[in-house]
Amino acid sequence: MIVNLNDVLKKAQEGHYAVGLFNTTDTDMAEAVIAAAEEMNSPVVIGTAEILLPYGELKLIAPSLRALAERAKVPVVLHYDHGLTFDRCIEALKLGFSSIMFDGSLGESDKNIEETREIVKIAHSFGASVEGEIGHVGNAIDGDGVEDDMYTTPEEAVNFVKDTGVDALAVAIGTAHGVYKTKPKLDLERLKAIRKACDTPLVLHGGSGLSDDDFRNSIRDGIAKVNIFTDLCVAGAKAMEEGIKEGKGYLEIRNMKVEEIKKCVINKMKLFGSENKA
Fold first, then answer.
1. N or C end of the chain: smaller count of CB under 10 Å?
2. Of 205, 198, 204, 218, whose CA–CA distance to 154 is shortest?
3. β-strands 19-23, 2-3 pairing
4. Which residues are designated catalytic?
5. Is the pLDDT of residue 138 over 60?
6. CA distances from 95 to 45, 90, 115, 119, 188 (A)
7. What are phi and psi of 185, to 5 degrees?
8. How far apart are CA 165 and CA 124, in angstroms?
9. How many angstroms separate the CA atoms of 83 and 61, rounded?
10. Which residues, 6 or more positions from 176, have their beta carbon under 8 angstroms from its beta carbon?
Protein backbone atom coordinates (compact mmCIF):
# COMPACT_ATOMS: atom_id res chain seq x y z
CA MET A 1 0.00 0.00 0.00
CA ILE A 2 1.22 3.50 -0.77
CA VAL A 3 1.64 5.90 2.16
CA ASN A 4 3.70 9.02 2.78
CA LEU A 5 6.51 9.82 5.22
CA ASN A 6 4.12 11.02 7.91
CA ASP A 7 2.57 7.56 8.05
CA VAL A 8 5.84 5.81 8.89
CA LEU A 9 8.43 8.22 10.30
CA LYS A 10 6.54 9.46 13.36
CA LYS A 11 6.09 5.84 14.44
CA ALA A 12 9.77 5.17 13.80
CA GLN A 13 10.75 8.22 15.82
CA GLU A 14 8.57 7.17 18.74
CA GLY A 15 9.75 3.55 18.52
CA HIS A 16 13.45 4.41 18.23
CA TYR A 17 13.98 2.62 14.93
CA ALA A 18 14.53 3.88 11.39
CA VAL A 19 12.85 3.23 8.05
CA GLY A 20 15.16 2.72 5.10
CA LEU A 21 14.93 4.57 1.81
CA PHE A 22 16.32 2.36 -0.93
CA ASN A 23 16.77 4.17 -4.21
CA THR A 24 16.30 2.14 -7.38
CA THR A 25 17.03 2.67 -11.06
CA ASP A 26 15.21 -0.34 -12.50
CA THR A 27 12.56 -2.94 -11.74
CA ASP A 28 15.16 -5.52 -10.66
CA MET A 29 16.26 -3.31 -7.78
CA ALA A 30 12.67 -2.36 -6.97
CA GLU A 31 11.55 -5.99 -6.93
CA ALA A 32 14.37 -6.84 -4.51
CA VAL A 33 13.48 -3.98 -2.15
CA ILE A 34 9.76 -4.76 -2.01
CA ALA A 35 10.39 -8.49 -1.58
CA ALA A 36 12.72 -7.75 1.33
CA ALA A 37 10.18 -5.42 2.96
CA GLU A 38 7.44 -8.03 2.71
CA GLU A 39 9.67 -10.79 4.09
CA MET A 40 10.71 -8.56 7.00
CA ASN A 41 7.18 -7.17 7.49
CA SER A 42 8.82 -3.76 7.42
CA PRO A 43 7.67 -0.36 6.21
CA VAL A 44 9.92 0.90 3.44
CA VAL A 45 10.66 3.99 1.40
CA ILE A 46 11.44 3.32 -2.25
CA GLY A 47 12.17 5.68 -5.07
CA THR A 48 14.73 7.33 -7.27
CA ALA A 49 16.72 10.54 -7.26
CA GLU A 50 17.06 13.29 -9.83
CA ILE A 51 20.75 12.53 -10.28
CA LEU A 52 19.84 8.91 -11.11
CA LEU A 53 17.38 9.73 -13.90
CA PRO A 54 19.96 9.23 -16.69
CA TYR A 55 20.04 5.57 -15.59
CA GLY A 56 16.26 5.12 -15.23
CA GLU A 57 14.04 7.84 -16.71
CA LEU A 58 11.28 9.01 -14.40
CA LYS A 59 8.42 8.37 -16.84
CA LEU A 60 9.62 4.79 -17.26
CA ILE A 61 10.46 3.87 -13.67
CA ALA A 62 7.55 5.67 -11.94
CA PRO A 63 4.70 3.42 -13.21
CA SER A 64 6.64 0.30 -12.23
CA LEU A 65 7.45 1.60 -8.77
CA ARG A 66 3.86 2.67 -8.23
CA ALA A 67 2.49 -0.71 -9.36
CA LEU A 68 4.85 -2.56 -6.99
CA ALA A 69 4.02 -0.23 -4.11
CA GLU A 70 0.26 -0.45 -4.61
CA ARG A 71 0.16 -4.21 -4.34
CA ALA A 72 2.77 -4.54 -1.58
CA LYS A 73 1.62 -6.10 1.69
CA VAL A 74 3.49 -3.49 3.72
CA PRO A 75 3.41 0.33 3.82
CA VAL A 76 5.49 1.78 0.99
CA VAL A 77 6.44 5.43 0.62
CA LEU A 78 7.06 6.28 -3.04
CA HIS A 79 9.72 8.94 -2.66
CA TYR A 80 11.40 11.27 -5.16
CA ASP A 81 14.83 11.80 -3.62
CA HIS A 82 17.08 14.85 -4.01
CA GLY A 83 14.78 16.75 -6.30
CA LEU A 84 16.97 19.56 -7.60
CA THR A 85 14.54 21.32 -9.91
CA PHE A 86 11.00 22.56 -9.47
CA ASP A 87 9.83 21.01 -12.75
CA ARG A 88 11.07 17.52 -11.95
CA CYS A 89 9.52 17.61 -8.47
CA ILE A 90 6.14 18.54 -9.95
CA GLU A 91 6.52 15.83 -12.58
CA ALA A 92 7.14 13.26 -9.84
CA LEU A 93 4.00 14.38 -7.99
CA LYS A 94 1.94 14.10 -11.17
CA LEU A 95 3.34 10.61 -11.76
CA GLY A 96 2.06 9.49 -8.37
CA PHE A 97 4.98 9.83 -5.96
CA SER A 98 3.68 10.13 -2.41
CA SER A 99 6.71 12.01 -1.13
CA ILE A 100 9.26 14.53 -2.39
CA MET A 101 12.68 15.48 -1.13
CA PHE A 102 13.54 18.95 -2.37
CA ASP A 103 17.25 19.61 -2.07
CA GLY A 104 18.15 23.27 -2.18
CA SER A 105 21.01 22.83 0.28
CA LEU A 106 23.71 23.93 -2.17
CA GLY A 107 22.07 27.31 -2.73
CA GLU A 108 21.70 30.31 -0.50
CA SER A 109 19.83 29.64 2.74
CA ASP A 110 17.04 32.13 2.02
CA LYS A 111 16.50 30.68 -1.44
CA ASN A 112 16.46 27.13 -0.05
CA ILE A 113 13.77 28.13 2.45
CA GLU A 114 11.69 29.97 -0.14
CA GLU A 115 11.79 27.18 -2.71
CA THR A 116 11.23 24.42 -0.15
CA ARG A 117 8.23 26.28 1.28
CA GLU A 118 6.68 26.47 -2.20
CA ILE A 119 7.26 22.76 -2.84
CA VAL A 120 5.67 21.96 0.53
CA LYS A 121 2.50 23.87 -0.40
CA ILE A 122 2.19 22.09 -3.72
CA ALA A 123 3.09 18.60 -2.46
CA HIS A 124 0.68 18.85 0.47
CA SER A 125 -2.10 19.68 -1.99
CA PHE A 126 -1.34 16.31 -3.63
CA GLY A 127 -1.44 14.59 -0.23
CA ALA A 128 2.33 14.04 -0.45
CA SER A 129 4.95 14.62 2.22
CA VAL A 130 8.12 16.68 1.83
CA GLU A 131 11.66 16.20 3.09
CA GLY A 132 14.03 19.16 3.07
CA GLU A 133 17.73 19.50 3.74
CA ILE A 134 19.59 22.09 5.77
CA GLY A 135 23.36 21.94 5.81
CA HIS A 136 24.97 19.96 3.00
CA VAL A 137 25.69 16.23 2.76
CA GLY A 138 28.63 16.09 0.36
CA ASN A 139 30.07 13.49 -1.99
CA ALA A 140 32.55 11.05 -0.51
CA ILE A 141 34.55 10.84 -3.72
CA ASP A 142 35.14 14.60 -3.60
CA GLY A 143 35.95 14.62 0.10
CA ASP A 144 33.47 17.46 0.65
CA GLY A 145 31.44 15.75 3.34
CA VAL A 146 33.77 16.79 6.16
CA GLU A 147 33.57 20.56 6.10
CA ASP A 148 32.41 21.89 9.44
CA ASP A 149 30.74 24.92 7.92
CA MET A 150 28.38 22.65 5.98
CA TYR A 151 27.13 20.84 9.08
CA THR A 152 23.60 21.47 10.33
CA THR A 153 23.15 23.45 13.53
CA PRO A 154 20.19 23.03 15.89
CA GLU A 155 19.16 26.63 15.33
CA GLU A 156 19.16 26.18 11.56
CA ALA A 157 17.07 23.01 11.88
CA VAL A 158 14.42 24.63 14.05
CA ASN A 159 14.15 27.73 11.87
CA PHE A 160 14.08 25.73 8.64
CA VAL A 161 11.21 23.53 9.81
CA LYS A 162 9.27 26.53 11.10
CA ASP A 163 9.80 28.52 7.88
CA THR A 164 9.07 25.72 5.40
CA GLY A 165 6.67 23.25 7.05
CA VAL A 166 8.65 20.18 5.91
CA ASP A 167 7.57 16.76 7.20
CA ALA A 168 11.12 15.40 7.52
CA LEU A 169 14.55 16.99 7.68
CA ALA A 170 17.84 15.71 6.26
CA VAL A 171 20.71 16.86 8.44
CA ALA A 172 24.44 17.02 7.79
CA ILE A 173 26.37 15.40 10.66
CA GLY A 174 29.44 14.02 8.86
CA THR A 175 28.17 11.57 6.23
CA ALA A 176 28.66 11.82 2.47
CA HIS A 177 27.10 10.25 -0.61
CA GLY A 178 28.87 7.44 -2.43
CA VAL A 179 31.88 5.32 -1.48
CA TYR A 180 33.97 6.68 1.37
CA LYS A 181 37.72 7.12 0.86
CA THR A 182 38.30 7.42 4.61
CA LYS A 183 36.20 6.36 7.59
CA PRO A 184 33.52 8.98 8.26
CA LYS A 185 33.25 10.49 11.73
CA LEU A 186 29.69 11.24 12.74
CA ASP A 187 29.02 14.20 15.03
CA LEU A 188 26.55 12.44 17.31
CA GLU A 189 26.55 15.23 19.88
CA ARG A 190 25.36 17.57 17.15
CA LEU A 191 22.68 15.06 16.17
CA LYS A 192 21.45 14.79 19.76
CA ALA A 193 21.27 18.56 20.04
CA ILE A 194 19.28 18.82 16.80
CA ARG A 195 16.90 16.08 17.89
CA LYS A 196 16.35 17.76 21.25
CA ALA A 197 15.57 21.08 19.59
CA CYS A 198 13.49 19.75 16.67
CA ASP A 199 10.59 17.29 16.84
CA THR A 200 10.44 16.75 13.06
CA PRO A 201 11.73 13.30 11.98
CA LEU A 202 15.40 13.45 11.01
CA VAL A 203 17.00 11.79 8.00
CA LEU A 204 20.52 10.44 7.48
CA HIS A 205 21.83 10.64 3.92
CA GLY A 206 25.03 8.97 2.76
CA GLY A 207 24.31 5.78 4.68
CA SER A 208 26.13 3.32 2.42
CA GLY A 209 29.51 2.43 3.87
CA LEU A 210 28.80 3.35 7.49
CA SER A 211 29.55 0.78 10.18
CA ASP A 212 26.80 -1.09 11.99
CA ASP A 213 27.59 0.91 15.11
CA ASP A 214 27.31 4.16 13.15
CA PHE A 215 23.78 3.21 12.17
CA ARG A 216 22.80 2.01 15.64
CA ASN A 217 24.17 5.11 17.31
CA SER A 218 22.63 7.57 14.87
CA ILE A 219 19.23 5.89 15.16
CA ARG A 220 19.55 5.84 18.95
CA ASP A 221 20.30 9.57 18.88
CA GLY A 222 17.38 10.60 16.70
CA ILE A 223 17.53 9.43 13.07
CA ALA A 224 14.20 8.04 11.80
CA LYS A 225 15.03 7.51 8.10
CA VAL A 226 18.25 6.28 6.48
CA ASN A 227 19.05 6.56 2.77
CA ILE A 228 20.80 3.66 1.03
CA PHE A 229 21.79 3.30 -2.62
CA THR A 230 25.50 2.61 -3.14
CA ASP A 231 25.43 -0.59 -1.05
CA LEU A 232 22.67 -1.95 -3.31
CA CYS A 233 24.76 -1.23 -6.39
CA VAL A 234 27.79 -2.92 -4.87
CA ALA A 235 25.76 -6.02 -3.96
CA GLY A 236 24.22 -6.22 -7.43
CA ALA A 237 27.52 -5.72 -9.24
CA LYS A 238 29.23 -8.40 -7.15
CA ALA A 239 26.46 -10.89 -7.94
CA MET A 240 26.71 -10.18 -11.67
CA GLU A 241 30.49 -10.59 -11.63
CA GLU A 242 30.13 -13.93 -9.86
CA GLY A 243 27.47 -15.04 -12.33
CA ILE A 244 29.67 -14.20 -15.30
CA LYS A 245 32.64 -16.04 -13.76
CA GLU A 246 30.42 -19.08 -13.24
CA GLY A 247 29.28 -18.98 -16.86
CA LYS A 248 25.64 -18.31 -15.99
CA GLY A 249 23.16 -17.06 -18.57
CA TYR A 250 21.69 -13.56 -18.57
CA LEU A 251 18.46 -14.48 -16.77
CA GLU A 252 20.29 -16.50 -14.12
CA ILE A 253 22.62 -13.56 -13.52
CA ARG A 254 19.64 -11.25 -13.27
CA ASN A 255 18.08 -13.45 -10.59
CA MET A 256 21.37 -13.62 -8.70
CA LYS A 257 21.52 -9.82 -8.74
CA VAL A 258 17.98 -9.48 -7.38
CA GLU A 259 18.66 -11.99 -4.63
CA GLU A 260 21.86 -10.29 -3.47
CA ILE A 261 20.23 -6.86 -3.42
CA LYS A 262 17.34 -8.34 -1.45
CA LYS A 263 19.77 -9.79 1.10
CA CYS A 264 21.45 -6.40 1.42
CA VAL A 265 18.10 -4.70 2.08
CA ILE A 266 17.09 -7.35 4.64
CA ASN A 267 20.35 -6.84 6.52
CA LYS A 268 19.77 -3.08 6.61
CA MET A 269 16.18 -3.46 7.82
CA LYS A 270 17.32 -5.70 10.67
CA LEU A 271 20.02 -3.20 11.55
CA PHE A 272 17.60 -0.26 11.41
CA GLY A 273 15.14 -2.08 13.67
CA SER A 274 12.18 -1.84 11.27
CA GLU A 275 11.53 -5.60 11.11
CA ASN A 276 7.90 -6.41 12.06
CA LYS A 277 7.02 -2.71 12.30
CA ALA A 278 4.69 -2.67 9.27
1. N
2. 198
3. unpaired
4. 81
5. no
6. 16, 9, 21, 16, 37
7. -120, 110
8. 10
9. 15
10. 137, 138, 139, 140, 144, 145, 146, 184, 206
Confidence band (pLDDT; 50, 70, 90) for 77? Answer: very high
Amino acid (one-letter) located at 213? D
3-state SS track over 117-165: HHHHHHHHHCCCEEEEEECCCEEHHHCCCCCHHHCCCHHHHHHHHHHHC
Inter-CA distances, 83 with 21, 53, 75, 108, 119, Å: 15, 11, 22, 16, 10
CA R_g for the chain? 18
pLDDT at 142: 47
- CB 209, CB 184: distance < 8 Å: yes
128-164 b/e with 16+ CB inside 10 Å = b?
bbbbbbbbbbbebeeeebeeeebbbbbebbbebbebb
pLDDT at 108 over 90: no
Residue 106 has a pLDDT of: 80
CA distances from 77 to 8, 69, 88, 196 (A): 8, 8, 18, 26
